[in-house]
Amino acid sequence: MFLERLSLRHFRNYGVQEVAFTAPKAILVGDNAQGKSNLLESIQVLAALRSFRAGRDRDLVQEGAADGRN
Length: 70
Ligand SMILES: Nc1ncnc2c1ncn2[C@@H]1O[C@H](COP(=O)(O)OP(=O)(O)OP(=O)(O)O)[C@@H](O)[C@H]1O
Ligand SMILES: [Mg+2]
Description:
Strand content: 15-25%
Number of strands: 2
Strand order of the largest sheet: 1-2
Bound molecules: adenosine-5'-triphosphate, magnesium ion
Oligomer: single chain
Structural class: alpha+beta
């Protein structure tokens, strides 16, 4: 399976975010708490419909948002 595009809406600390994976490999680089693990988590939720670290699905939704999409 190849992931070409990721579209996030109110997922964790992401409001509206589009990510295009245009190369065979991707490296996430960023400061602490910038959202690297959250982005990986969103991919895992896509693949497995569950998170490796969220106890409740509600935790995946951006704080203050009514719902989120992935
Ligand atoms: N439901 C949520 N709504 C809003 N922000 C959230 C939510 N869940 C987590 N966050 C925020 O996401 C940020 C952490 O993101 P993440 O763990 O992906 O960072 P990281 O880039 O992996 O950092 P590190 O380099 O320390 O591992 C924190 O600022 C945290 O408050
Ligand atoms: Mg991390």
